[in-house]
Design brief:
- By secondary structure, this protein is α+β, with helices and mostly antiparallel strands.
- About 15% of the residues lie in helices and about 30% in strands.
- It contains one helix and five strands, in the order E-E-E-E-E-H.
- The longest helix is centred in the last third of the chain and has 12 residues, at about 55-65.
- The N and C termini lie far apart (about 40 Å).
- The mean pLDDT is about 80.
Length: about 80
């Protein structure tokens, strides 16, 4: 993960989910801790759209990722489009 210079528009210090030495526009996910227990997420290709959650929910998500609970989303051939009747 790489630190991103502080964002003057939000005052948040973003951490980019990209390998050390990775360059280019991404797109990558960036995460920032906010005030209180808030965690903010955004995509480098659309930094103006920010999703906010709580530290407790973020911790549960991270534990789920580590435990493999979301691996089925990474399988080849997954249908990412809208459901069809």
């Amino acid at each position: 993960m790489a630190d991103v210079p502080p964002d003057a528009s939000t005052g948040l210090n973003w951490i980019r989910a990209a390998g050390e030495g990775d360059t280019g526009p991404g797109p990558w996910i960036e995460v920032a801790a906010g005030t209180g227990d808030l965690i903010h997420l955004r995509e480098t290709s659309d930094p103006g759209t920010v999703v906010t959650t709580t530290q407790v929910k973020w911790d549960a998500f991270v534990k789920g990722v580590v435990a493999g609970e979301f691996d089925h989303f990474a399988e080849l051939g997954i249908n990412r489009g809208p459901a069809t009747p």
